[in-house]
Specification:
The relative contact order is 0.15. The chain has a seven-stranded parallel β-sheet with strand order 3-2-1-4-5-9-14, with helices on both faces. The radius of gyration is 20 Å and the shape is globular. The longest helix has 22 residues, at 89-110. It has ten helices and 16 strands. The chain is 33% helix and 18% strand. The chain is α/β, with parallel strands linked by helices. Helix 1 packs across helix 7.
């Protein structure tokens, strides 16, 4: 394999992908904007064996230059997180949708097929998979603000109103993005699928579940919940857990996610693949485990909520195991103990 371009290769997941690729002997080039929402300057952990280009994936000229000699791309560049408000919509679309479109157009203009691995997200599912005791697998509707305000967090069966049992969500579940970030991640996948059909390129979208670990950005509206809890503990404050803390998620360590990317670059798997630990935990468990490991204040469950959040979403990992030979190796307990003292960005 020739040079691999990693967009967003200075970021949380991207930098770990870069390190693992470089350790394998691959030639790596990075294109990264060093966006101020994610970076306070050039990170100290940049890999000396790698070529870095500081520019915007939405800049057609910069992208074209970076693609010289490249035959595989790991597309990690994106704005992430739920954001501060709907006012962020233009920035999300610019960086995620337009940036991806700019990259894909440059790749298509080269006229030769390429291997492309997209950093996707489980947020495209919206709510996860649910089963009603009477009606089988059902898709609950959007959560209602009046129910959330009353502390009624569990989505009911849309047919009979009974309580549902959450299940692992497989890749063939219908997508149902429920916030701006999720909509842009779904559109990234769709743009990449169109690119693959029209150029005979090979594209896989790795749908990351809740990634945590070293180099996470600190507490911002764009950070993951693990980083927000860790930042609270560093500030001497208790982690504030939304709803009742029983929301189920799959927390997967960043080194495992990076390894899945390396495996995907070397494979011909196409379509969507969940990247997760296969060990779902509640948000309350995450807060409590992290507080114990850090030696900080016990979490407080607030009952607060965000309308764009979903209740339960955790993954089926069978496709990753059978087609990518990927299985997460960092356990929840080990990963959280490391994360309690790992440097944040």
């Amino acid at each position: 394999m020739g040079t691999i371009l990693v967009t967003g290769g200075c970021g949380f997941v991207g930098s770990h992908v870069v390190d693992q690729l470089a350790a394998s002997g691959a030639a790596v080039r990075v294109l990264d904007l060093l966006h101020p929402l994610a970076h306070a300057g050039e990170p100290t952990y940049l890999n000396p064996a790698v070529e870095y280009v500081f520019g915007d994936v939405g800049d057609a000229e910069a992208v074209a230059r970076c693609l010289d000699g490249v035959d595989a791309v790991s597309h990690q560049a994106a704005m992430v997180g739920l954001g501060a408000s709907f006012d962020d919509v233009v920035d999300y679309v610019r960086h995620n949708d337009l940036g991806t479109a700019t990259l894909l157009r440059a790749l298509a203009r080269r006229g030769t097929p390429v291997r492309l691995v997209l950093a996707g997200s489980m947020v495209v599912y919206g709510e996860g998979r649910y089963r009603c005791p009477e009606h089988g697998v059902v898709r609950p509707g959007a959560r209602r603000e009046e129910s959330l305000a009353a502390g009624d967090f569990e989505p009911p069966c849309p047919r009979c109103g009974r309580q549902l049992d959450p299940e692992q969500v497989p890749e063939d579940a219908p997508i149902d993005p429920r916030n701006v970030y999720a909509a842009t991640k779904a559109h990234q996948e769709q743009l990449c699928a169109a690119f693959a059909r029209e150029t005979a390129s090979s594209v896989v979208a790795l749908r990351y579940h809740n990634v945590y670990g070293p180099r996470m950005p600190r507490d911002t509206p764009y950070a993951g919940v693990a980083s927000i809890f860790r930042s609270a503990l560093e500030g001497g404050r208790p982690p504030l857990v939304f709803e009742d803390g029983r929301q189920l998620r799959d927390f997967v360590h960043v080194r495992d996610v990076a390894r899945a990317n390396v495996l995907a670059l070397g494979s011909s798997v196409s379509g969507a693949v969940n990247v997760a630990s296969g060990d779902p935990r509640t948000v309350g468990e995450l807060a409590a485990e992290l507080a114990r490991a850090f030696g900080g204040a016990e979490p407080e469950t607030t009952g607060a909520y965000r309308l764009g959040d979903v209740r339960h979403v955790f993954a089926s990992t069978s496709r990753a195991e059978t087609e990518l030979s990927f299985r997460a190796t960092v356990t929840f307990a080990v990963g959280i103990r490391e994360f309690a003292s790992a440097p944040l960005r």
